[in-house]
């Protein structure tokens, strides 16, 4: 058997002393100790228990076939169009497919779109028109703008305002909602040729314009925007 030298014995005794000191200070783990306190975890747990998730949004739900409508679902429509008329029935059909639809809100949006389209056409702003028109109507507008530009003609136009805008018909065509409006507006408009001479309209006179425009939207799409799908100028 070998012999321990003095240094080895000294370090061994020191290790034993340190072990018992640590045991007295830290104690033993019995399995019943409280877990360490995490203030951040505790704050999150308390917040989660008292608050609802902020990213949960209730969206209008499309009713299933045969499912009865809520009692107040058509209140705004019945106040806008007389019950049992074709217009009322058409608006109700749109409401069934698009719970967020409101006729007065629709008219407000259509009036803004009307002004934007009229001015974009006068300015030859194809980018704005593309976002507001159906493909067929856009192609027609762009063709007219191109013809005007080829002749170096320009439209000088000022939008005065809309006197009246009424929904005259509404219907569902498959999954697509169609709403037609009769719009009476006031414009100052004149077309000038390459030399600057007025060839149509009057730059000094406010003219009354009567249009019948139809807007449509696919109610099956997440896109909430309506687009102009048909235009007709009323004499």
Strand content: 25-35%
* Mean pLDDT value: 82
Radius of gyration: 37 Å
Number of helices: 7
Main sheet properties: 5 strands, antiparallel
Listing every helix as H and every strand as E from the N terminus to the C terminus, the arrangement reads HHHHHHHEEEEE
Alpha-carbon distance between the two ends: 124 Å
Described by the principal axes of the CA atoms, the overall outline is elongated
Considering the chains and any ligands shown, give keywords for the structure.
single chain; alpha+beta; five-stranded antiparallel sheet
Short description:
This protein has 235 residues and is α+β, with helices and mostly antiparallel strands. The protein has helices at residues 6-26, 39-50, 75-80, 86-97, 103-123, 126-132, 135-150; strands at 154-173, 176-192, 198-201, 207-218, 227-233. Strands 1, 2, 3, 4 and 5 form a five-stranded antiparallel sheet that branches.
Descriptive notes:
Helix 5 (103-123) packs antiparallel against helix 6 (126-132) and helix 6 packs antiparallel against helix 7. Mean pLDDT is 82; it is low at 33-50 and 52-61. Strands 1, 2, 3, 4 and 5 form a five-stranded antiparallel β-sheet that branches. A hairpin with an 8-residue loop joins strand 4 and strand 5. It is elongated, with a radius of gyration of 37 Å. It is 40% helix and 26% strand. It has seven helices and five strands; from the N terminus they run αααααααβββββ. The chain is α+β, with helices and mostly antiparallel strands. The relative contact order is 0.10. The N and C termini lie far apart (124 Å).
